[in-house]
Structures are given as C-alpha cells and as structure tokens.
Amino acid sequence: MMLYDTKVAPNPRRVRIFLAEKGIVVPTTNVDLGKLEHRDDAYSRINALQRTPALVLDDGTVITESVAICRYFDEIQPEPNLFGTGAVSRALVEMWQRRLELNLMLPTAQVFRHSHPGMAQLEVPQIAQVAETNRPRVLDFLRVLDAHLGARRFAAGDAFSIADITGLVGMDFLRLARIQAPPDLAHVARWHAELSARPSAAA
Amino acid sequence: MMLYDTKVAPNPRRVRIFLAEKGIVVPTTNVDLGKLEHRDDAYSRINALQRTPALVLDDGTVITESVAICRYFDEIQPEPNLFGTGAVSRALVEMWQRRLELNLMLPTAQVFRHSHPGMAQLEVPQIAQVAETNRPRVLDFLRVLDAHLGARRFAAGDAFSIADITGLVGMDFLRLARIQAPPDLAHVARWHAELSARPSAAA
C-alpha cells in the first residue's frame, strides 16, 4: 500500500488527520505540487486527474478522493468510529461533512486559487471576481455554522467525526485565503480551538 | 417524514432516482426555485442554506445534502445495494460518486449558472469567464471518464451504484448548460444510454 500525499495541501491533510485519529500508519510518497510533480507522467498514470491524495493498494487498485480514501480505512478498521453509528447519525455526519466541504473548503479554495499570487501558475486564468464573490459566501456559511455549533459540541453532534476533520482543515485554510473569521463567532472559535488541540491536528 | 423536492433541479433528482431504485415512496412537497420559495421564511427554518432537497424525519431531524439523504435511506433499507459491498467496492463507489459530482456536475453547474439567461436572478453576479473556463474542464473529464468506462459497465465497476445516478444527472445537465459531449466518446454514450433506459431515470 502507498499513499501519495502532499504536505502543504488541504485535501491530503484530511486523510492524514483521519489516519492519525484511527492510529493507522501508511507508507507515504510526497508529491510536490510546486514542482508540478502531480502532472508528470508517472503520477498521471496513477491519477489521470492529476490531484493528490491517491492510495494505491497492493493489488494495484487506485483510490482517489480524500473522503473515499477515508471510507476505505473506515471499512477495514471501523474503530474509533468517524462516520457515525446508526442511520440518522451516519446521515448527519455525511450532511455536515459535505456542508463543510462545499460551503467552507470549496469557496475558500476559490478565494485562494483566484487571488493568491502563488497560485498564478496553477489556476489559469485567475479571475479576481471569483475570489470577491466567494469571500462573502464563506462568511455567510460561518454564521450558519456558528448558530449550529451553539447547540452541539461537534459538527454532527456529540461525537467527533470526519465532518470535524473537514471543518478543521477548512478553518485553517482561511488564513491562506486571507479570510478572517468574524471574531464574534464564539462557537466557531471554541470548536476550532478544540479541534486544533487534538493531537491529530499536527498531521 | 417529508421530502422537500424541486422538480426541475439536478440535485433533488438524484434523490428521486435513488428512491426509485430502492422502491421507496416518500411524501413530497415541491419547492419552486423560480418563485424563490427556497428563500422564504418557512423553508429557511428547515434549511438555513436555502437549498433543496431536504428530508424532515418524524422527530423533526432535518437531513440536507442529496448524498446524505440517500445515505439515510441506504442505512434503513440496504437492498438493493447502491453504495457498494466490501471495503474496496464502497471506496470505489465513493470515489466515482465524488469524481462525477466534482468534475462533471459541479463545473457543468458553473457553466449553467454563469451563462444561462434564466439564472441571472439566482446567480449574482453572473461571470462569463467562469462559464468559459469550466466548459473545457467538463470536456477534459468526459475524456477521462470515457477511457474508464471502456473497461467496465458502470462507473464503479460491474454493479450499478449511486455513482451512476450522479453520472446520469450530470450527463442530462449538460444540455441545460449547452455543452455537447464529444460524439467520439462511445463508452460515455453507451453508459449514458443504458442509465437513461432504466425506469428510475424517469424520476
């Protein structure tokens, strides 16, 4: 088994945190996006979409997409549980994982990719208006999230889950995109601090 | 239980097809996006993000996000299986569900939202350059998908899955976005025809 990882990118970090929470160690190869290693022939044969992470199993099966890689490890080692237990809990974990991905990570990535000078080579063309229109979407979602977290410890309820991993990575991504979370969002700040204090956050 | 549905939108259709494949019937309320019913107070109390679909359980629990709603029904009625069986299969279904969502549906939606005159009221501001840059991304992905489907019947292998539902809805969305799938993509065309012939496609 080999995990193709990228040290500085948000999506591969989701998998690293997930593995740290599970206590699973996997052999890793770093793919340097800055050197465009994800676009070379060797990596393109592993993932034609030229993105990291990717997990290659011993029989050659390739699993891409961060959440799909996490799902694989969850299936082979269910504990500690990170996808929820029972129909409602599993649906709520999926719901909040997706909400945090689609309404926090994705628009933050749009701001980052379309405004950061360091992304000029990777995001062609950079469109300033995309950054401008996505910034308020992130802030609007953070307000909804704050109200939600006022009534529960973690994104999907009482238990830590993969939704919180996506949330932590999304929150940490704000800085790169130069978005400041409004300081009055006390519940978001409390939640972010608690997630950041877990040993897995260092992954 | 009540499913808040929208007849003409791609995401709610994913849930309807999923339910048709499972043979599950759920009471439904239509939310008319054209009349901005998704933004009124009553619906905003159900889903603060003002999107459809949403499923409200008898105890008042609200599940949003199409795939999370499908996950709920899969958990309470596992057969017929649409999320894969076994660790590798479940990971590959998740991988292809996400690939079809993020690389077919999402950029197609970007083209549609940023170029269709009918979306001027819902996508503010429409940015023509977003439509232009996402159109080739859809076509690039369809080429990768065509190569993939040359070696297997369905998106995630031999068995029909939720990945194919996302694929069918994504393919049908191309027409609305005025994107033509290249006619030489024979495997994509064969797969799309087979999915379209299933009774569930009418949902």
Can you describe this structure?
The structure is a homodimer of 203-residue chains. By secondary structure, chain A is of the alpha+beta class. Chain A folds into 2 domains: 2-76, Glutaredoxin; 87-202, Glutathione S-transferase Yfyf (Class Pi), Chain A, domain 2 (Up-down Bundle), CATH 1.20.1050. Chain A is 53% helix and 6% strand. Chain A contains 7 helices and 4 strands. A 4-stranded mixed β-sheet of chain A has the order 2-1-3-4, with helices on one face. In chain A, helix 1 runs antiparallel to helix 6 and helix 4 (87-115) packs parallel to helix 6. The longest helix of chain A has 29 residues, at 87-115. The two termini of chain A are 19 Å apart. The model of chain A has no long low-confidence stretch (mean pLDDT 97). The A-B interface holds A 48-49, 57, 61, 63-65, 67-69, 71-72, 75-76, 86-88, 90-92, 94-95, 98-99, 102-103, 125, 127, 129-130, 133, 141, 144, 147 and B 48-49, 57, 61, 63-65, 67-69, 71-72, 75-76, 86-88, 90-92, 94-95, 98-99, 102-103, 125, 127, 129-130, 133, 141, 144, 147.
Count of helices of chain A? 7
Quote the average pLDDT of chain A: 97
Into how many domains do the coordinates of chain A divide?
Answer: 2
Global geometry of chain A? globular
| Architecture (CATH level 2) name of the largest domain in chain A | Up-down Bundle
Mind sketching the topology for me?
The structure is a homodimer of 203-residue chains.
Chain A: E1 2-5, H1 10-22, E2 28-30, H2 41-46, E3 54-56, E4 62-64, H3 66-76, H4 87-115, H5 128-149, H6 162-176, H7 186-197
Parallel strand pairs in A: 1-2
Antiparallel strand pairs in A: 1-3, 3-4
